[in-house]
Amino acid sequence: MPDKNEINLYFGIVVVMASFVVIAGGVILFFIRYQKKMLKNQQELHRMETRHRKELLAGSIQSAEEERLRIAKDIHDEIGSIFSTLSLSVGQLKQENNSPNNAIVQSNELIQTGINSVRRISHGIVPFELDLLGLHRTLENYFQSVAAVSGIEITFNCSYDFSSTESSTTLAIYRIVQELLSNCIKYAQAAKVSIKINTTSDNRQLTLQYNDDGLGVNLHDKDIKKGIGLKNIESRAISLDGTAGFNSSPGKGFSCCITLPIKN
C-alpha cells in the first residue's frame, strides 16, 4: 500500500497533467477562435474589395455614358442646327429661283443626308428611344436597322416586361447587345443571329442568350478575347452583380450568356 508521500506525488502529477491539458485546451481554443476571426476578417476584406471594385467599375461606366450623352447632344444640337440653317437657306434660294438649278437640288439632297446622318450618329451614341419606347421596342428597331444594313437574319425573342426595370439595367443590356452585334458584323461573317431574353424559373434573374453561326474565335487567345470587346461585356455584367459566359471555337460560331439579378 503506497504511503502518503507517494499519494501526494501521484496527486501532484495528476494535477500537473490536468493543468497542462487545460492550458493546452485553452491555447488550442484560442488558436481556433483566432483563426476563425482572421478568416472572418479576410472574408469581410474580400467583400469590401469586391464591392469597391464594382463601385469603381460602375462609376467608370456611368462616366462613360455621361460623356456619350454630352457628345450626342453636341452633335445633335450644334451640327444639326447648322444643317437645319443650311436647309432653310437653300429653301429660300429655291423660292427665289423659279427653276432651281442642279447645284441647288444637289445641295438640298446633301443637306438632308447630313441631317439624317447626324440623327443616326447621335442616336447610335445614346439610345434616346429607351426612355420613350422601352428596351423591347428599341431593340426591335435596332435589329431591323442592323439587318437591313448587314443582311444578317436576326431572330429576337423576349418574354420579359422591362417597364419596371431600372434604367441602368436596360441601358447595360442595350450596350451588351450593341457590342455583340458589332463584333458579329466586324469579325464573325455570320448569316444568322439568335437573341433571347428570359427569366429564370424563380423569376429572380434575367438571362440574355446570344448565338450566331459565324466563324467563331479561340477564346484561349488573350489578344483575340481582348480585341473583340468581351471585357466590356463582362464589365457591364459585373457592375450589375451579374455574370457573363462565352463559348466559341473556330468554325463553330459564338455564343454568350448574360445573367443579371432582377432589380425593380
SSE layout:
Layout: H1 4-96, H2 102-125, H3 129-150, E1 153-158, H4 167-188, E2 192-199, E3 205-212, H5 222-227, H6 230-239, E4 243-248, E5 254-261
Parallel strand pairs: 1-2
Antiparallel strand pairs: 2-3, 3-5, 4-5
Helix pairs in contact: 1-2, 1-6, 3-4, 4-6
Walk me through what this model shows.
The chain has 264 residues and is an alpha+beta fold. The protein folds into two domains: 1-126; 131-264, Heat Shock Protein 90, CATH 3.30.565.10. The chain is 67% helix and 14% strand. The chain contains six helices and five strands, in the order αααβαββααββ. The chain has helices at residues 4-96, 102-125, 129-150, 167-188, 222-227, 230-239; strands at residues 153-158, 192-199, 205-212, 243-248, 254-261. A five-stranded mixed beta sheet has the order 1-2-3-5-4. α1 (4-96) packs antiparallel against α2 and α4 packs antiparallel against α6 (230-239). The longest helix has 93 residues, at 4-96. It is elongated, with a radius of gyration of 33 Å. The mean pLDDT is 78.
Strand segment count: 5
SSE order, as H and E?
A: HHHEHEEHHEE
Radius of gyration: 33 Å
Q: Give me the number of helical elements.
A: 6
Spatial order of strands in the largest sheet: 1-2-3-5-4
Tally of domains: 2
Kindly report the average pLDDT value. Answer: 78
Strand share of the residues?
Answer: 5-15%
- The helix fraction, in percent, is 55-70%
Low confidence ranges: none
The coarse silhouette is elongated
Any descriptors?
single chain; 264 residues; alpha+beta; Heat Shock Protein 90; 2 domains; 6 helices; 67% helix; elongated
